[in-house]
Specification:
innate immunity, 30-stranded mixed sheet, 17 helices, about 900 residues, alpha/beta, binds 2-acetamido-2-deoxy-beta-D-glucopyranose, repeat, Rossmann fold, Leucine-rich repeat, LRR (right-handed beta-alpha superhelix), five-stranded parallel sheet, single chain, membrane, signaling receptor activity, signal
């Protein structure tokens, strides 16, 4: 390389390295990128979009106008993408960037789609075109546009007119087609739109070797769909048809040419009679007639229901059932009669025993009394829903004969007392819901009878006192009360296998107060409204002393006193959602440093309305595994400049929702960071505002304040510079030595850093205890004094395995590579510093390598500085930016008077011992 070429080359290299390390911009204004597997509740905080089960990584962008620009900023491995905005034309190969896309939801206004628009979407399963206001925008879909989608499973058009599109070829894999809020008036139009689906008598039909088949055809909410036409659906094999909210008369379907249909949904169609003829004609197994006006059913209406297995009559104003009802529906398995007027006394029709009914929903029917043996004609019943009625008395006789009942819902009734043995006739019960009842003293004895009760909900308006014994089979428990919940726990481990616990009350108490409850298997804990005392700093007052298995903690307090909170004894906690529901409280700022001190496994941290004050890097020390950080509903939040030290470790997802910042230049690194965050998805800064002081009501956008009022962000610049400066130093050093195959070394070095930055240190790889870095000028002291004191076997020395570059690097080994490798394989680094050392490029390099290690694993003693002579701290700080990372004990000063030497050696050995032990 010629001398002239070198600077150019290194500049190129530098920009290459920058792009590797920190130049990747993920933040896109108006886009949310999130992984819903990390925080299932994420849509509560940030704009999200409805996903399909099993999909996790999604991007949801609003206000899209330049499609290409929006898409380039999104990660390639997206599974779901939702776009909202105005894009008139979808160009060819618009989404080729995202080969793993499985769901695509487009809300782009009037839209013309180009033929190859969906090229390369091999894995797409769900495609939705949506327009929010009802009918209708125009959508032009070329005939072959869907052809590349070989695995398309569901296709949906909502709020669009498809008049101008014709002859759309549907992929064979399609099983669900939806046209809602369209301008469809006659089913006949489907023939022209999708000839392959509805060959009918259409002349354009292409004969296909496969009979057209659809699982679901959803034509709901087509307000003008009133005609069916004769034989329009002939040839279509259809499992389920939904015509909810259309003015279509069900009887017309008889002439449609459809031969098979399993399931028909006619919700909210104004029907006043059961559509018996249609049911009989198709031999329907599922019929949904929710929200109609079928107030009366006569015996004469009941012909033709022999095949029906599922019937939904939700919200019809039904007063009674005809006596022949159950015998006329011999196959019935699920009957939904919720929100009718069957009360106050339940009179299930007599007659034949229904041996098939498994699920009966009688919720919200104004029922007051359940006569004895009310359900004895339903011996196979597995689910009984009686919520929202007026039941006050429940005897075991009422539940007689339900030998197979698994689910019993009695929530929101007037039950005040339950008698012992009331569940004795329900041996198979698994889940019992008693939320919203009036039982204030609940003894575990009331649960005797069922052998496998595992899910229990209890709730009473004011207080709830719980007494043992509790069934050992319990896996989940949810308890609500307004003021307090009290657990009486004399002894033992009553909740041995409980995995999930939800408590909603102002206070949770123990009786007697000096007791403890153990939840050895608890993995999910949700607390709503509870006083933070439940996790009080005082061990003796803590409700949960230790929760060794806890992985998820959702804690919504309502007391504003979260500052006393400390979470310890939670070694497995992965997800922490913490919020204060009291939006008006003026509590003192929460001390995150204390709160999060002892949560080594934390991956998700969501904080709401906690009055966090100023965040600094110390708040997040030790959270090396954090992947998602969410700050919600914060007022006057400051982001300290020290936080930028955290950047290399910043979680992958950082969200600010509804956060008002302080207008301060300390935060000026935030803008450049959000735009160039290395591998971090930042959301919410563009829309955030800041305020100068408490009485500042001007809505100043945060980013424009920072760019307008703060001088160039020297801090971040210097951070990025220091991040890459070392690279430059090396490059120049290497370029100065033409014999070195510098690229190779650079690669080795980078590899080593990368592993460190990623925190992927391998445990058992330590060959040395201490790497000693010093420069030639200080060598005499190091060899004569330091080495013997540390290396000699006990008791004369400390018996440590030392690595000295000069001694331990083999002849001919390249110093750069070996340095990086040796630092990696040493438990700690001791830098011997003097003015001369600071001037030496090698010492600098070693110091810097150690610094990066420190950044990657803060809180551990990775680096000790030993000053041979007094050095102005600032000289060190400004250059190496180490001060923030080192604890005070990590600086050692060689005493100037020999009287203090003993103490010095003792201190040095103690620090080194600690550092070595930490790594073990
Ligand atoms: C989601 O967060 C809201 C916030 O109040 C809470 O009410 C709700 O229970 C949470 N849901 C889950 C599933 O955690
Ligand atoms: C959408 O973007 C335009 C500029 O492209 C902007 O003027 C408008 O305010 C944005 N609308 C919303 C709701 O963000
Ligand atoms: C589509 O058809 C509907 C009803 O037939 C009609 O009202 C509407 O004007 C048509 N739109 C276009 C763009 O042809
Ligand atoms: C239903 O079918 C019966 C005979 O099966 C017929 O008498 C009756 O008229 C039909 N009802 C309607 C509305 O078509
Ligand atoms: C009964 O139907 C209503 C309305 O469709 C639904 O919300 C409810 O979950 C159904 N009940 C059961 C037990 O499926
Ligand atoms: C509920 O039942 C009680 C008697 O048990 C009765 O006084 C009350 O009116 C009923 N309420 C309703 C809404 O039916
Ligand atoms: C709790 O206090 C009671 C007296 O209030 C005492 O009898 C009992 O031994 C104490 N139990 C424990 C575990 O300290």
């Amino acid at each position: 390389v010629s001398r002239m070429g070198r600077p150019l080359l290194s500049l190129t290299l530098l920009s290459f390295l920058m792009s590797l390390g920190s130049g990747w911009a993920w933040t896109t204004p108006d886009c949310t990128i999130a992984d819903s597997s990390l925080l299932s509740n994420i849509s509560y905080y940030i704009p999200s979009c409805p996903l399909a089960p099993g999909l996790h990584l999604f991007a949801s962008c609003s206000n899209v106008s330049d499609l290409a620009q929006t898409l380039t900023a999104l990660p390639r491995r997206l599974e779901a993408l939702c776009l909202q905005g105005t894009v008139p034309v979808l160009p060819a190969d618009a989404f080729g960037h995202f080969p793993t896309l499985q769901l695509l939801r487009l809300q782009l206004g009037t839209l013309r789609i180009t033929s190859g628009a969906f090229q390369r979407l091999d894995q797409l399963q769900h495609l939705f075109f949506e327009h929010p206001t009802p009918c209708c925008l125009s959508l032009l879909l070329p005939s072959d546009a869907l052809e590349p989608l070989r695995f398309l499973n569901s296709l949906s058009f909502q709020g669009y007119c498809l008049n101008s599109s014709q002859n759309i070829q549907l992929p064979l894999s399609l099983s669900r087609l939806t046209l809602r809020h369209s301008c469809l008036t006659d089913l006949q139009e489907l023939q022209g739109l999708f000839p392959s689906l509805v060959p009918g008598s259409s002349p354009t039909a292409i004969s296909s070797p496969w009979p057209p088949f659809l699982e679901v055809l959803d034509l709901s909410a087509n307000m003008q769909l009133s005609r069916v036409g004769v034989k329009t659906l002939r040839g279509l094999q259809l499992h389920s048809l939904r015509l909810d909210g259309t003015p279509l008369s069900a009887l017309e379907l008889l002439a449609s040419g459809l031969l098979h249909l399993d399931s028909l949904s006619l919700v909210d169609t104004g029907a006043e009679k059961l559509p018996g003829n249609v049911t009989a004609y198709f031999e329907l197994s599922t019929l949904d007639l929710g929200r109609n006006q079928i107030q009366h059913i006569g015996d004469e209406d009941l012909s033709g229901y022999h095949s029906l297995e599922h019937l939904n009559l939700h919200a019809n104003g039904l007063h009674s059932l005809p006596t022949r009802f159950l015998s006329a529906l011999p196959q019935l398995q699920r009957l939904n009669l919720s929100m009718n007027k069957l009360g106050p006394t339940l009179a299930l029709p007599e007659g034949l025993v229904s041996s098939n009914l498994r699920v009966l929903d009688l919720s919200h029917n104004e029922l007051s009394a359940l006569p004895s043996g009310a359900f004895s004609s339903l011996p196979q019943l597995e689910e009984l829903w009686l919520g929202g009625n007026n039941i006050s008395n429940l005897s075991s006789e009422a539940l007689e004969g339900l030998r197979w009942l698994k689910t019993l819902d009695l929530s929101w009734n007037q039950i005040k007392v339950l008698k012992l043995g009331w569940l004795s006739s329900l041996p198979a019960l698994i889940s019992l819901n008693l939320l919203g009842t009036y039982i204030e003293n609940f003894s575990g004895r009331l649960l005797q009878g069922p052998q496998k009760l595992s899910h229990l909900w209890l709730g009473s308006p004011e207080i709830l006192e719980l007494y043992p014994p509790w069934p050992l089979t319990l896996l989940s428990l949810e308890v609500w009360a307004q003021s307090y919940i009290q657990f009486s726990v004399p002894h033992g481990k009553p909740f041995q296998f409980l995995e999930s616990l939800t408590l909603q009350a102002s206070y949770v108490l123990l009786h007697p107060g000096n007791n403890t409850v153990h939840f050895p298997s608890l993995r999910h804990l949700t607390l709503r409204g509870c006083s933070p005392g439940i996790f009080s700093t005082h061990k003796s007052q803590r409700f949960f002393p230790q929760l060794h298995s806890l992985e998820h903690l959702h804690f919504w307090s309502y007391h504003g006193g979260t500052e006393g909170l400390q979470l310890f004894g939670l070694p497995r906690l992965r997800v922490l959602e913490l919020g204060n529901l009291d939006s008006l409280s003026e509590s003192r700022p929460v001390n995150l440093e204390v709160l999060l001190e002892d949560l080594p496994q934390l991956e998700v941290l969501a904080l709401s309305n906690l009055n966090l004050g100023n965040l600094s890097v110390s708040s997040f020390r030790g959270l090396g595994l954090l992947q998602l950080l969410l700050l919600n509903s914060e007022w006057a939040l400051g982001l300290d400049s020290s936080l930028q030290e955290f950047i290399p470790q910043m979680p992958q997802y950082v969200y600010f929702s509804d956060v008002t910042f302080i207008c301060q230049c300390e935060s000026s690194w935030v803008g450049p960071w959000a735009a160039r965050a290395p591998n971090t998805f930042v959301y919410g800064l563009e829309k955030s505002i800041c305020m100068a002081n408490a009485s500042d009501y001007f809505k100043t956008p945060l980013l424009s304040f920072l760019s307008g009022h703060c001088p160039d962000n020297l801090e971040l610049q210097s951070f990025l510079t220091s991040f890459t400066l070392v690279v430059l130093v090396i490059i120049f050093a290497l370029l100065g030595c033409p014999n070195w195959s510098w690229l190779h070394h650079l690669q080795a070095l980078f590899h080593a850093w990368w592993r460190k930055l990623g925190g992927r240190n391998h445990r058992s790889q330590y060959h040395y205890d201490v790497f000693i870095s010093y420069c030639r000028q200080d060598r005499a002291w190091v060899l004569a004094e330091l080495i013997p004191a540390l290396e000699k076997p006990l008791p004369a020395g400390e018996g440590l395995r030392l690595c000295l570059p000069e001694r331990d690097f083999g002849v001919g080994q390249d110093r750069m590579e070996t340095t990086a490798a040796s630092i990696e394989s040493s438990k700690t680094i001791l830098c011997v510093l003097s003015h001369q050392a600071l001037g030496s490029p090698w010492c600098n390099l070693e110091l810097r390598l150690a610094t990066y290690r420190l950044v990657a694993k803060p809180g551990t003693t990775s680096l000790l500085l030993l000053f041979l002579e007094p050095i102005d701290r600032r000289q060190l700080c400004s250059y190496h930016r180490l001060a923030r990372w080192l604890q005070k004990e990590d600086y050692l000063h060689l005493p100037q008077r020999s009287a203090n030497w003993e103490a010095f050696w003792e201190q040095l050995r103690r620090r080194l011992r600690k550092a070595v032990q930490e790594k073990e």
